[in-house]
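ok so dumb question maybe but i'm new to this and my supervisor (M.) told me to 'just get the structure for Small ribosomal subunit protein bS20' and walked off. so i did the thing. is this what she meant?? sequence i used:
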Amino acid sequence: MPNIESAIKRVRVNEKAALQNNAQKSAMRTAIKKFEQAVEAGSENVASLHKEAIKAVDMAATKGLIHRNKANRDKSRLTAKLAK
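this is what came out, is it supposed to look like this??
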């Protein structure tokens, strides 16, 4: 544990940011899984789930949680699954 006040605050800020980042990445993964399960089940709300998954991936890329190229790759794969 750091002794300097600014270092103590930095630890608190980093822990808070890590929690937010993990929550957003988890939400992204959940949106993708919901879409993929709906595609396999042949559900009628696939288009709306696709839109939510794409939005979640874009948000993660914007925040720097995933690389821009990974976001584009994921979106491309999701769109290909929708087209099938």
